[in-house]
């Protein structure tokens, strides 16, 4: 896998069908613990690539799509104050789009928030399990 490449995907009407791993295909049914193997498939919405490129290319693509695209995909749009505070935009006032660094900061904030929520949920599950004992 090339970790320097990113893909921005959008779910479409098409579906991809994947065969489950053989480990997940056994069904218990006999008293000896054996089971008959059934071939199972999973259908998932197929995500069409909107754009494929390096991280910087993807950030440039997101910026080029504008604020509506960013809010649609859960990326916080920098405010005018944040844009004016950026040294990149002080040098180039004609540019109205947020800089790559602001988009990266917004993305990092969003990822940090998601991680914090996951940790809080996990702690709550552990607390509930401990209280149930």
General description of the model:
This protein is α+β, with helices and mostly antiparallel strands. It contains 5 helices and 4 strands. It has 2 domains: 54 residues, no CATH class; 68 residues, no CATH class. Helix content is 46%, strand content 26%. It is flat, with a radius of gyration of 23 Å. The two termini are 44 Å apart. The relative contact order is 0.11.
Name its key features.
alpha+beta; two-stranded antiparallel ribbon; two-stranded antiparallel sheet; flat
In brief:
With 133 residues, this protein is α+β, with helices and mostly antiparallel strands.
How many individual domains?
Answer: 2
Structural class based on helices, strands and sheet pairing:
alpha+beta
What share of the residues does DSSP label as strand, in percent?
Answer: 25-35%
Largest sheet: 2 strands, antiparallel
Tally of extended strands? Answer: 4
Rg, alpha carbons: 23 Å
In round numbers, the mean pLDDT is 66
Task: Outline the secondary-structure elements.
Elements (H helix, E strand, L loop, with lengths): L4 E15 L6 E3 L6 E3 L3 E14 H11 L1 H6 L7 H6 L1 H5 L8 H33 L1
Antiparallel strand pairs: 1-4, 2-3
């Amino acid at each position: 896998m090339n970790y320097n490449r990113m893909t921005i995907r959008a779910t479409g009407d098409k579906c991809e069908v994947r065969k489950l791993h053989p480990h997940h295909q056994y069904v218990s049914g006999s008293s000896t613990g054996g089971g008959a193997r059934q071939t199972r498939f999973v259908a998932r919405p197929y995500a069409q690539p909107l754009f494929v490129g390096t991280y910087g290319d993807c950030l440039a693509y997101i910026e080029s799509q504008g604020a509506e695209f960013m809010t649609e995909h859960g990326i916080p749009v920098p405010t005018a104050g944040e844009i004016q505070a950026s040294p990149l935009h002080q040098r180039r006032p004609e540019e109205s789009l947020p800089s790559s660094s602001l988009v990266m900061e917004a993305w990092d904030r969003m990822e940090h928030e998601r991680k914090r929520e996951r940790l809080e949920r996990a702690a709550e599950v552990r607390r509930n399990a401990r209280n149930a004992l």
